Amino acid sequence: MTRSEPFSQLLHCLYVYPLIVSLGRKRNLFIRVEMRKDDSDIRKHPLEAMYPGDDGAVLQKWAHTQVYVGSRMACCHDEIKIFLPAILSPQHHLLFTLFHVDLQTKQEAPKPVIVGYAALPLSTHAQLHSEVSLPIFRELVPHYLQDSIKEGLDYLEVEKMSSD
Protein backbone atom coordinates (compact mmCIF):
# COMPACT_ATOMS: atom_id res chain seq x y z
CA MET A 1 0.00 0.00 0.00
CA THR A 2 1.41 3.39 -0.98
CA ARG A 3 0.37 6.86 0.09
CA SER A 4 -1.21 7.58 -3.28
CA GLU A 5 -3.36 4.43 -2.97
CA PRO A 6 -4.50 4.05 0.63
CA PHE A 7 -7.37 1.68 -0.20
CA SER A 8 -7.54 -0.85 -2.98
CA GLN A 9 -11.29 -1.25 -2.78
CA LEU A 10 -14.31 0.82 -1.77
CA LEU A 11 -16.96 -1.21 0.05
CA HIS A 12 -20.60 -0.32 0.58
CA CYS A 13 -22.44 -2.51 3.04
CA LEU A 14 -26.01 -2.66 4.22
CA TYR A 15 -27.09 -4.38 7.41
CA VAL A 16 -30.65 -5.75 7.47
CA TYR A 17 -32.40 -6.97 10.58
CA PRO A 18 -35.68 -8.77 9.85
CA LEU A 19 -37.75 -8.12 12.96
CA ILE A 20 -41.25 -9.60 12.86
CA VAL A 21 -43.18 -11.80 10.45
CA SER A 22 -46.84 -12.49 11.05
CA LEU A 23 -48.59 -15.01 8.83
CA GLY A 24 -51.78 -15.89 10.67
CA ARG A 25 -51.91 -19.62 11.35
CA LYS A 26 -48.54 -20.48 9.80
CA ARG A 27 -45.84 -21.47 12.28
CA ASN A 28 -42.19 -22.49 12.00
CA LEU A 29 -41.16 -19.68 9.67
CA PHE A 30 -37.85 -18.58 8.22
CA ILE A 31 -36.79 -15.96 5.66
CA ARG A 32 -34.44 -16.11 2.70
CA VAL A 33 -32.95 -12.74 1.74
CA GLU A 34 -31.38 -12.05 -1.65
CA MET A 35 -30.35 -9.00 -3.63
CA ARG A 36 -31.57 -8.70 -7.20
CA LYS A 37 -30.44 -6.38 -9.97
CA ASP A 38 -33.96 -6.12 -11.44
CA ASP A 39 -37.37 -7.79 -11.40
CA SER A 40 -37.73 -8.63 -15.09
CA ASP A 41 -36.86 -12.35 -14.98
CA ILE A 42 -37.90 -14.12 -11.78
CA ARG A 43 -35.91 -17.24 -12.77
CA LYS A 44 -32.63 -15.31 -12.88
CA HIS A 45 -30.26 -16.02 -10.01
CA PRO A 46 -29.71 -13.25 -7.45
CA LEU A 47 -26.47 -11.32 -7.11
CA GLU A 48 -23.71 -12.79 -4.97
CA ALA A 49 -23.92 -10.09 -2.32
CA MET A 50 -24.56 -11.80 1.03
CA TYR A 51 -21.70 -12.06 3.47
CA PRO A 52 -21.49 -15.56 4.97
CA GLY A 53 -21.33 -16.11 8.70
CA ASP A 54 -17.68 -17.12 8.69
CA ASP A 55 -14.92 -14.71 7.72
CA GLY A 56 -12.91 -15.30 4.57
CA ALA A 57 -15.63 -17.18 2.69
CA VAL A 58 -16.91 -15.97 -0.67
CA LEU A 59 -20.09 -13.93 -1.03
CA GLN A 60 -23.28 -15.96 -1.24
CA LYS A 61 -26.47 -15.59 -3.31
CA TRP A 62 -28.77 -16.00 -0.31
CA ALA A 63 -28.87 -15.48 3.42
CA HIS A 64 -31.33 -17.30 5.69
CA THR A 65 -32.72 -16.50 9.09
CA GLN A 66 -33.19 -19.12 11.76
CA VAL A 67 -36.40 -21.18 11.84
CA TYR A 68 -38.71 -19.76 14.47
CA VAL A 69 -40.39 -22.86 15.86
CA GLY A 70 -43.90 -22.86 17.33
CA SER A 71 -44.62 -19.15 17.00
CA ARG A 72 -47.30 -17.56 14.82
CA MET A 73 -45.41 -14.29 14.97
CA ALA A 74 -41.76 -14.85 14.19
CA CYS A 75 -39.55 -12.39 16.07
CA CYS A 76 -36.20 -12.48 14.32
CA HIS A 77 -32.81 -11.84 15.87
CA ASP A 78 -30.68 -12.21 12.75
CA GLU A 79 -28.25 -9.73 11.23
CA ILE A 80 -27.72 -9.92 7.48
CA LYS A 81 -24.74 -8.10 6.00
CA ILE A 82 -25.06 -7.25 2.32
CA PHE A 83 -22.40 -6.04 -0.11
CA LEU A 84 -23.85 -3.20 -2.19
CA PRO A 85 -22.64 -2.22 -5.66
CA ALA A 86 -20.90 1.15 -5.92
CA ILE A 87 -23.80 2.46 -8.00
CA LEU A 88 -27.34 1.44 -7.16
CA SER A 89 -29.87 1.49 -9.96
CA PRO A 90 -33.59 2.08 -9.30
CA GLN A 91 -34.13 -1.64 -9.99
CA HIS A 92 -31.77 -2.97 -7.29
CA HIS A 93 -33.83 -4.45 -4.48
CA LEU A 94 -33.92 -7.01 -1.71
CA LEU A 95 -36.29 -9.92 -2.13
CA PHE A 96 -37.51 -11.64 1.02
CA THR A 97 -38.93 -15.14 0.53
CA LEU A 98 -40.92 -16.46 3.47
CA PHE A 99 -40.97 -20.19 4.15
CA HIS A 100 -43.04 -22.44 6.41
CA VAL A 101 -41.61 -25.74 7.64
CA ASP A 102 -44.15 -28.39 8.67
CA LEU A 103 -42.57 -30.10 11.64
CA GLN A 104 -45.63 -32.32 12.21
CA THR A 105 -44.76 -34.61 9.31
CA LYS A 106 -42.82 -37.77 10.03
CA GLN A 107 -40.16 -36.94 7.45
CA GLU A 108 -36.54 -36.92 8.55
CA ALA A 109 -35.93 -33.57 6.83
CA PRO A 110 -39.18 -31.63 6.29
CA LYS A 111 -39.35 -29.68 3.05
CA PRO A 112 -39.86 -25.89 3.38
CA VAL A 113 -42.87 -24.44 1.56
CA ILE A 114 -42.91 -20.88 0.19
CA VAL A 115 -45.75 -18.88 1.71
CA GLY A 116 -45.00 -15.40 0.38
CA TYR A 117 -42.63 -12.70 -0.81
CA ALA A 118 -41.79 -9.12 0.09
CA ALA A 119 -39.58 -6.67 -1.81
CA LEU A 120 -37.58 -3.66 -0.64
CA PRO A 121 -36.31 -1.27 -3.36
CA LEU A 122 -32.81 -0.17 -2.36
CA SER A 123 -32.81 3.12 -4.25
CA THR A 124 -35.47 4.51 -1.91
CA HIS A 125 -34.75 2.60 1.31
CA ALA A 126 -30.97 2.02 1.49
CA GLN A 127 -30.41 5.15 3.60
CA LEU A 128 -33.09 4.35 6.18
CA HIS A 129 -32.21 3.87 9.80
CA SER A 130 -35.71 2.96 10.87
CA GLU A 131 -38.22 0.16 10.71
CA VAL A 132 -40.00 -0.59 7.44
CA SER A 133 -43.18 -2.66 7.08
CA LEU A 134 -43.51 -4.57 3.85
CA PRO A 135 -46.65 -6.15 2.42
CA ILE A 136 -46.39 -9.85 1.62
CA PHE A 137 -47.58 -11.09 -1.75
CA ARG A 138 -48.39 -14.70 -2.57
CA GLU A 139 -46.78 -15.13 -5.99
CA LEU A 140 -43.65 -13.82 -7.65
CA VAL A 141 -44.39 -12.47 -11.13
CA PRO A 142 -42.14 -10.60 -13.60
CA HIS A 143 -41.90 -6.84 -12.96
CA TYR A 144 -43.33 -7.17 -9.42
CA LEU A 145 -41.79 -3.79 -8.44
CA GLN A 146 -43.73 -1.78 -11.02
CA ASP A 147 -46.78 0.06 -9.70
CA SER A 148 -49.07 -1.28 -12.44
CA ILE A 149 -48.12 -4.88 -11.52
CA LYS A 150 -48.21 -4.27 -7.74
CA GLU A 151 -51.88 -3.32 -7.98
CA GLY A 152 -52.73 -6.72 -9.46
CA LEU A 153 -50.72 -8.83 -7.01
CA ASP A 154 -52.51 -11.12 -4.60
CA TYR A 155 -51.44 -9.93 -1.14
CA LEU A 156 -51.80 -11.93 2.04
CA GLU A 157 -54.44 -10.23 4.17
CA VAL A 158 -53.09 -8.27 7.16
CA GLU A 159 -49.81 -10.15 7.02
CA LYS A 160 -46.66 -8.11 6.83
CA MET A 161 -43.01 -8.22 7.56
CA SER A 162 -41.04 -5.60 9.47
CA SER A 163 -37.33 -5.07 9.11
CA ASP A 164 -34.82 -2.55 10.35
TrEMBL record:
<protein>
    <submittedName>
        <fullName>Guanine nucleotide exchange factor SPIKE 1-like isoform X1</fullName>
    </submittedName>
</protein>
<dbReference type="InterPro" id="IPR027007">
    <property type="entry name" value="C2_DOCK-type_domain"/>
</dbReference>
<dbReference type="InterPro" id="IPR035892">
    <property type="entry name" value="C2_domain_sf"/>
</dbReference>
<comment type="similarity">
    <text>Belongs to the DOCK family.</text>
</comment>
<dbReference type="Pfam" id="PF14429">
    <property type="entry name" value="DOCK-C2"/>
</dbReference>
<feature type="domain" description="C2 DOCK-type">
    <location>
        <begin position="11"/>
        <end position="164"/>
    </location>
</feature>
<dbReference type="GO" id="GO:0007264">
    <property type="term" value="P:small GTPase-mediated signal transduction"/>
</dbReference>
<dbReference type="GO" id="GO:0005085">
    <property type="term" value="F:guanyl-nucleotide exchange factor activity"/>
</dbReference>
<dbReference type="InterPro" id="IPR026791">
    <property type="entry name" value="DOCK"/>
</dbReference>
